[in-house]
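Lecture 7 notes: from sequence to structure.
We start with the chain below.
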Amino acid sequence: MSHSSFSSREPKRLLERATALVPDGAVMPREQAQALIEKVVKMSKADEISVNVNSSYQADVRFAANQMSTSGGVINGTLTVQSTFGKKHAAAVTNDLSDESLRRTVEQSEALAKLSPDDPETMPGLGPQTYLPVNGYFDSTANLSPEDRARASLTARGRPLNACPLNR
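Predicted structure tokens for the same chain:
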């Protein structure tokens, strides 16, 4: 995880220190997510299983007293397992992707599903699907520096960049 916090009242000094980019490995590659899903599916004893992997990096710039006060980023990742036995189903979520945690999450999902009442509206899971690849990741956006985000924020707030103390 990468997180930086600054409290300097001097914008130039602040921007000199705010140089972190998206850390390597912040967003899980498709191949790693697929391997994780396959591992979880093999652990399951349920009639049906659905596994959802979410990985993200969120960067922020915060302003206080009309100037940038903090800049940082947070890496997030979760795995959701939904187990189904007949008309019973339940889900469990974890952000710990160790083998032991994955095993516990699958077991918890299955135990909760067995305890759940029958769902009269249960539909069978979809068969194999084919999806077109979507490229929702852009290096130009992911690699914005805190300075770039600050400049974009000032422009978005309707202030011309040359009126900003960050450009002096």
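Points to note: The CA atoms of residues 90 and 112 lie 6 Å apart. The longest helix spans residues 99-115.
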